[in-house]
Amino acid sequence: MKPFDASPAISSPLIRRLTLRDFRSYAALDARFGSKTIALTGENGAGKTNILEALSMFSPGRGLRRAEIGLCARHDGPGGFAVSIELETGGQILQFGHGLELDAQGNAARRFRVDRAPATSQRAFAEHIQALWLTPAMDGLFTGPAGDRRRFLDRLTLGVDADHGARVSKLERALRNRNRLLEEGGADPRWLAAAEQEIAALGVAVASARLDTARRLAALIEATRDETSPFPFALIALDGELEQMLRDEPAFTVEERYRSMLAQSRRRDAAAGRTLIGPQSSDLLVRHGPKSEAARDCSTGEQKALLTGLVLAHARLVTAMRGMAPLLLLDEIAAHFDTRRREALFDELDKLGGQVWMTGADPSLFKSLEGHADIFTVTPGRIERR
Fold first, then answer.
1. Quick one: which of 37, 104, 152, 204 has the most CB atoms within 10 Å?
2. Do residues 60 and 378 make contact, with C-beta atoms less than 8 angstroms apart?
3. Cα–Cα distances in Å, from 141 out to 318, 335, 364?
4. What domains appear along the chain, each with residue ranges and CATH number?
5. Does pTM surpass 0.90?
6. Measuring CA to CA, which residue among 273, 181, 167, 169 is closest to residue 213?
7. What's the pLDDT score for residue 186?
């Protein structure tokens, strides 16, 4: 990949302190960090990924594990949890927190704080911090079901459009509502028409945001691609009826066409038990650029390198569009790369300019980072600087 020149105007938020209370395997943790590169080493099950998960929840959504919020509370703990960070940004230190609180009756509620003031949702963090991640669970992205790739695409879109997640959630609720009306049968046609009007508006908005992100990412990849890079460039495209229409027609025209298609497909959708047309059925198509081969047909190693290159390109896009380098959370990122590719990865991460958190069971994977990275040993419930 060609070097990415971070503008002096680009901000690079750095987490300087992390505190956990009753989060996953941590009863209590208070750790400080002085570098923009953090490596967490330790045996499997020691709690490395738990730290990345706590940080990932400063971005909209359910975090890198997509877990139910209650499952993040420590087993045998009181039932709630708290995560707090001190973030160095714009020459000052700000404090942010998220957690789960239980009242006297045992009812749980999410809590968010921005510089100690209450906030309504994770959306409030977006102005100050953006987390992107790559985990071993994503290794089968190109060979797995289309739903996995749609979720990945939505994470890409959310990186440049903080409101995208809310639109996707609203669309999912609207689709469930229409499906229920169709299942019941005999629903008032006016209710169905209203549901389909809402789905058409939300569906076009979701598809447009995804398509815009894919176009921007593809353009950045084309402008910065390097045929000799150990992380091959990706060729990406969206496959879906709405996306195809949006390439040729304005959004308001597509919205009306989609509404009409929904009305005409009621009987078919009722028989299927779901809405068959719309962005909920789209797919992200990825090809290995240098080989011009579908990603799903590449070797496991090629797929890992291709996915890593795609995430790095997305980090560049987020930086360019938002003027803020994202926080990168890379779980077990180096274990499956040979020495050449691993060192190339470290070099690319350094050029991005943002803070990077990596995990690995083998400390020797990070030996070349000694002296200019914070390297910690993680054992159950605690971390210690090496």
1. 204
2. no
3. 21, 18, 28
4. 1-130+324-386 (3.40.50.300), 142-322 (1.20.1050.90)
5. yes
6. 167
7. 78
Q: What angle separates helix 300-322 from helix 189-224, to the nearest 10 degrees? A: 100
Exposed (0-12), middle (13-18) or buried (19+): which is 151, by Cβ within 10 Å? middle
What is the reported pLDDT for 362? 94
Identify each DSSP E strand in 166-289 by its residue range.
234-239, 283-288
What token pair was written down for 45? 């099950």
Residues whose CB falls within 8 Å of the CB of residue 383, separated by 6 or more in sequence, listed in order:
29, 31, 40, 47, 51, 376, 377
- 232-258 average pLDDT score: 96
End-to-end CA distance of the chain: 32
Q: Which of 149, 150, 155, 111 is nearest to 133 (CA)?
A: 155
DSSP strand pairing (37-41 vs 81-89): unpaired
Q: What is the pLDDT of residues 158-188, one digit of tens each?
A: 999 989 999 999 999 999 999 999 998 877 8
Measured between alpha carbons, how far is 167 from 154 in angstroms, rounded to an integer?
10
The predicted-structure confidence for 8-47, as pLDDT tens digits, reads as follows 578 999 999 999 999 999 999 999 999 999 999 999 999 9
CA distance 171 to 61: 15
With beta carbons less than 8 A apart as the criterion, state whether 257 and 203 touch. Answer: no
Tokens read off for 351: 């050029």
Cα–Cα–Cα angle for 308, 161, 66, rounded to 5 degrees: 60
CA angle 304, 134, 149 (to 5 degrees): 75
16 contacts 33 by C-beta, under 8 angstroms: yes
